[in-house]
Specification:
By secondary structure, the protein is an all-alpha fold. The protein has one helix at residues 8-49. The protein has one domain (3-49). 82% of the residues lie in helices and 0% in strands. 0% of the residues are buried. The mean pLDDT is 93.
Length: 51
């Protein structure tokens, strides 16, 4: 269905859903970034211990 054929309520609902998905994706990216940082720190510790 084209946007022009949708009601204002339908468009608002779609917008709300999109914002929710964006928020979820952002949270996943933050979580992934923390995981990568933790793994990097662990790698540095292990690499330093081997010297």
């Amino acid at each position: 269905m084209r946007d022009f054929d949708k009601t204002q309520e339908q468009l608002i609902n779609e917008l709300v859903q999109m914002r929710q998905r964006i928020a979820e994706k952002n949270q996943m990216m933050v979580s992934l970034s923390h995981t990568v940082s933790e793994q990097k720190e662990e790698y540095i510790c292990v690499a330093s211990a081997g010297e």
